[in-house]
Specification:
Layout (H helix, E strand, L loop, with lengths): L6 H15 L7 H10 L3 E9 L5 E5 L12 E3 L4 H8 L2 E3 L11 E9 L2 E10 L4 H22 L3 H6 L7 H9 L4 E4 L2 E8 L7 E8 L2 E9 L4 H19 L4 H16 L5 E9 L4 E7 L5 E4 L3 E4 L19 E4 L5 E5 L1 H4 L11 H11 L6 H15 L8 E8 L10
Antiparallel strand pairs: 1-2, 1-6, 2-3, 4-5, 5-6, 7-8, 8-17, 9-10, 10-11, 11-12, 12-15, 13-14, 13-16, 16-17
C-alpha cells in the first residue's frame, strides 16, 4: 500500500528550503530542493526552465556554464512536460513511465502568479489530493527560488537562450518587466519577437494602488541605436510617472529627453495608458502609434479612436489628447507594434489586423490562458513570415476581470 504524504511535514520542509536558499546560488537550487523534499516522500525532483521563445524546457542540473550540463530537454509542443506547462497543470505520467515501480511520476507547472517559468518533475508513492497539493506547493516555492536568483545569474540567462542574442535585445530583455502579471482584477501578458534580435520595440507595465500603467513603444530603426532610443523612452516615461506626471506630461517628458539626446534624429511612437482596476476606466494617449484594440464578449472587436499627437522626439507640437473608455468585465485590450500585422507570407499577404484579433478570440475563448494565447500567436506570426521577421513584433495584452479576482489564475 502506498504511503500517504504528510502535508505538515511537507510544509515544514518547504520552510526549511526557503531558509536554506537565502545564501544559495542558482547552481545549488536543484540539489537543495531534492535533498529537502526527499525526506518527506517527494523523490527524484528535477527543475526545468523554459527558453525565451517558450519552445523548449531545459533542465537545471547546477553544472556547467549554463547550470544545465547533462540535463534533459523537452519540447513545449508535443511532450507531457510541455502539456503541463501549456495548461498550467499537474499531470501524471502513465504507469509505464520512468518512475520506479510503485511510484508515480508527476509534471507540474512552475509559475509565479501567472508568469510561467518552467516545470517541476517529481516522484511520489501516493496519488491523492494531499500529495497533489504538496506538489503544487513545491512548484510555487521553486518559482520563488528561481525568481530570487535569476536577475543576477548569467547561468540562468544562458540556460533560457537557444541562440546568440544581439546587444539591443540584451538591453530590451533587461529593461522590460516580467512577461506576465495577475492581480487586483487584471491580468497582463506580453511577447516580443524576434526574441534574440529585437531592435526598437519595448513594452512596460506597472501597478500603483488600483492603477495599472501600460505602455508600448516602437523606436525608429532596427539596430542597437533603436534599442538605446527605446530604453531612453521607457526610462523617461517611468521617471515622469513615478514623479506623479499625467499620461500627457509623461509623453512630453519622453519627447524632451529624446530631443536632448538625439536632436530630432530619432523618435518613438507609442501608446501610454492607465487602467483603473476598481472601475475599469481606461485612459490613454496616442503618440503616432497603432490604436488599441478592445475585444468584448469574445465576439466584438473595436479599435479605440483617439486623435494622435506626433511621435515622441519629433517636436511637431501637436496637442496630446487623453481619451477614455469604460471597460466591461472580461474585456481585453491589445497594444501592439506594426511587426505583428505587417508580417508577410511568401505571396506578400500581411498577417493583418483582423487575423490578429481573430486569433486572440479563437485561442483565448476559455481554452487557453492569456499567456499561452500570446505564445501561440507569436508562433503563428513567425510561421506566416517564414520563421524569421523583418521587423520587431510586440504585443501587450491586458484583461480586466472586474470583481472576478478568483478567475485570475488557472
Amino acid at each position: 500500500m502506498a504511503s500517504v504524504l504528510d502535508r505538515t511535514a511537507a510544509a515544514s520542509a518547504l520552510l526549511e528550503l526557503m531558509q536554506a536558499s537565502h545564501t544559495a546560488t542558482l547552481e545549488e537550487i536543484p540539489a537543495l530542493i531534492a535533498d529537502r523534499v526527499a525526506e518527506v516522500g517527494i523523490y527524484d525532483t528535477a527543475v526545468f526552465v523554459v527558453d525565451i521563445r517558450e519552445t523548449v524546457l531545459r533542465q537545471l542540473t547546477g553544472k556547467g556554464r549554463d547550470a544545465g550540463s547533462g540535463g534533459q530537454e523537452f519540447t513545449v509542443q508535443g511532450s507531457l512536460p510541455g502539456q503541463a506547462y501549456q495548461r498550467v497543470d499537474l499531470l501524471a505520467e502513465p504507469a509505464t513511465g520512468d518512475a520506479p515501480d510503485g511510484r508515480r511520476r508527476w509534471w507540474v507547472a512552475v509559475t509565479d502568479g501567472v508568469e510561467r517559468l518552467g516545470v517541476l518533475r517529481a516522484d511520489t508513492d501516493a496519488d491523492d489530493e494531499p500529495t497533489r497539493r504538496s506538489l503544487r506547493d513545491l512548484a510555487s516555492m521553486t518559482a520563488l527560488l528561481l525568481l530570487s536568483k535569476r536577475s543576477f545569474s548569467d547561468s540562468y540567462a544562458r540556460r533560457v537562450r537557444t541562440e546568440p542574442m544581439n546587444v539591443a535585445a540584451e538591453m530590451q530583455w533587461n529593461l522590460t518587466p516580467p512577461p506576465a502579471y495577475a492581480g487586483h482584477s487584471a491580468t497582463v501578458g506580453a511577447v516580443m519577437e524576434p526574441a534574440y534580435q529585437v531592435g526598437g520595440d519595448a513594452f512596460d507595465y506597472a501597478v500603483a494602488g488600483s492603477v495599472l500603467h501600460l505602455g508600448i513603444f516602437d523606436a525608429m530603426g532596427h539596430d542597437t541605436t533603436a534599442g538605446i532610443t527605446a530604453n531612453v523612452a521607457v526610462a523617461a516615461c517611468r521617471n515622469a510617472r513615478r514623479h506623479g506626471a499625467s499620461l500627457a506630461e509623461s509623453s512630453e517628458l519622453v519627447e524632451q529627453v529624446l530631443l536632448e539626446q538625439f536632436e530630432g534624429r530619432r523618435y518613438v511612437t507609442g501608446i501610454l495608458a492607465d487602467l483603473d482596476m476598481d472601475t475599469g476606466r481606461l485612459t490613454w494617449i496616442n503618440r503616432g502609434h497603432h490604436l488599441p484594440i478592445v475585444i468584448r464578449d469574445n465576439r466584438w472587436t473595436t479599435e479605440l479612436a483617439c486623435p494622435p499627437a506626433g511621435p515622441m522626439g519629433t517636436a511637431l507640437g501637436l496637442p496630446v489628447t487623453e481619451c477614455t473608455e469604460h471597460l466591461q468585465p472580461g474585456d481585453r485590450v491589445l497594444l501592439y507594434t506594426d511587426g505583428v500585422i505587417e508580417a508577410r507570407d511568401a505571396r506578400g499577404r500581411q498577417f493583418g489586423r483582423s487575423r490578429f484579433a481573430d486569433f486572440v478570440k479563437r485561442h483565448h475563448s476559455g481554452r487557453h490562458t492569456v499567456h499561452e494565447t500570446l505564445r501561440r500567436l507569436m508562433a503563428a506570426v513567425m510561421d506566416h513570415h517564414g520563421g524569421k521577421l523583418d521587423d520587431d513584433a510586440t504585443v501587450l495584452l491586458s484583461e480586466w476581470r472586474g470583481s472576478h479576482q478568483d478567475e485570475l489564475t488557472p
